């Protein structure tokens, strides 16, 4: 099997919610950041493995964690304080992030991160107002 096929297979398995936890733990140590990012997004990845990925050297992997619906809030908080502004910017775009974390990001030292978080908060507020008008 050529290297491309191996990587493609690992990528698909890493995103499979039915993949065994032992295999996900193994794939979290892949040399390919794309594979590790898929493991980070997988809702069935064990918490201990997600914790390991929280310190991954590649920002794409750390950012992928924020797309995992099962990620504990304390992990999201650590990501909101990440040293890489691209990670914080990606979080600031995420409308599923807790409001309290978006508010922290809206005060970020990086003006792009702060602006993006403020925009996300505005979008959520407008969606909430629209929802209440539709229900009334």
What does it look like?
By secondary structure, this protein is mainly alpha-helical. It folds into 2 domains: 1-71, no CATH class; 72-136, Leucine-rich Repeat Variant (Alpha Horseshoe), CATH 1.25.10. 66% of the residues lie in helices and 0% in strands. The protein contains 9 helices and no strands. The protein has helices at residues 3-14, 21-27, 33-41, 47-53, 59-65, 73-80, 85-92, 99-105, 111-135. Helix 7 (85-92) runs parallel beside helix 9 (111-135). It is elongated and about 45 Å long. The N and C termini lie far apart (60 Å).
* Mean pLDDT rating: 92
Treating each run of at least 4 consecutive H or I residues as one helix, how many helices?
Answer: 9
Unreliable stretches (pLDDT < 50, length at least 5) are none
- The rounded distance between the terminal residues' Cα atoms is 60 Å
Helix content: 55-70%
The dominant shape is elongated
* Major sheet description: none
The ordered H/E elements are: HHHHHHHHH
Strand content: under 5%
| Number of beta-strand segments | 0
Total number of domains: 2
Rg on CA atoms, Å: 17 Å
The helix/strand class is mainly alpha
List the helices and strands and how they pair.
Layout: H1 3-14, H2 21-27, H3 33-41, H4 47-53, H5 59-65, H6 73-80, H7 85-92, H8 99-105, H9 111-135
Helix pairs in contact: 1-3, 3-5, 5-7, 7-9, 8-9
Please sum up the structure shown:
By secondary structure, the protein is mainly alpha-helical.
Name some characteristics of this structure.
Leucine-rich Repeat Variant, 0% strand, 2 domains, 136 residues, mainly alpha, 9 helices
């Amino acid at each position: 099997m050529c290297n491309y096929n191996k990587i493609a297979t690992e990528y698909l398995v890493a995103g499979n919610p039915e993949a065994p936890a032992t295999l996900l733990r193994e794939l979290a140590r892949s040399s390919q950041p794309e594979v590790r990012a898929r493991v980070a997004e997988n809702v069935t990845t064990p918490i201990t493995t997600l914790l390991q990925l929280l310190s991954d050297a590649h920002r794409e992997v750390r950012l992928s964690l924020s797309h995992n619906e099962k990620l504990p809030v304390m992990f999201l908080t650590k990501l909101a304080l990440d040293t890489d502004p691209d990670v914080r910017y990606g979080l600031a775009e995420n409308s599923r992030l807790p409001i309290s974390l978006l508010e922290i990001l809206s005060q970020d030292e990086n003006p792009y991160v702060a602006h993006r978080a403020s925009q996300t908060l505005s979008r959520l507020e407008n969606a909430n107002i629209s929802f209440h008008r539709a229900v009334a």
